[in-house]
């Protein structure tokens, strides 16, 4: 299992896309220096993320398991994704919001 520092580093890399967006906004606003700092920070976060993933792949133990049952975490959302009709409107499910 990963220690707390590795988990913190891996989860902190989730802000990289947000920082990239801020860098674009800063660049468009004429703040090229701030945009460059943010892009460098994004690159650092990506490198850290790749390093943690590589470490996890090579150093952590592998555990195999078989799933006996799978339940949806949110059945309402899963129903909408699973029951989305095709463009031909061939789905004829009672109560479907897409079939009129």
The overall pLDDT, averaged over residues, is 77
Q: What's the story with the biggest beta sheet? A: none
Q: Rounded to an integer, what's the Rg over CA atoms? A: 22 Å
Number of helices: 4
Q: Report the helical percentage.
A: 55-70%
Gross morphology is elongated
Task: List low-pLDDT spans.
Answer: none
Order of helices and strands: HHHH
Total beta strands? 0
Beta-strand percentage? under 5%
Taking the alpha carbons of the first and last residues, their distance comes to 51 Å
Kindly name the structural category.
mainly alpha
In short:
The protein is 58% helix and 0% strand. By secondary structure, the protein is mainly α.
Index terms:
single chain; 100 residues; 4 helices; mainly alpha
Mind explaining what this structure looks like?
- The protein is built from four helices and no strands.
- By secondary structure, it is an all-alpha fold.
Topology:
Blueprint: H1 4-12, H2 16-28, H3 32-59, H4 75-82
């Amino acid at each position: 299992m990963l220690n707390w520092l590795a988990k913190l580093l891996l989860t902190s890399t989730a802000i990289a896309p947000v920082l990239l967006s801020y860098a674009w906004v800063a660049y468009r606003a004429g703040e090229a220096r701030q945009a460059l700092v943010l892009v460098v920070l994004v690159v650092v976060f990506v490198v850290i993320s790749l390093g943690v993933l590589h470490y996890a792949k090579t150093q952590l133990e592998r555990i195999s398991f078989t799933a006996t049952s799978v339940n949806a975490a949110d059945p309402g959302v899963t129903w909408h994704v699973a029951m989305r009709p095709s463009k031909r409107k061939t789905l004829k499910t009672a109560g479907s919001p897409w079939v009129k």
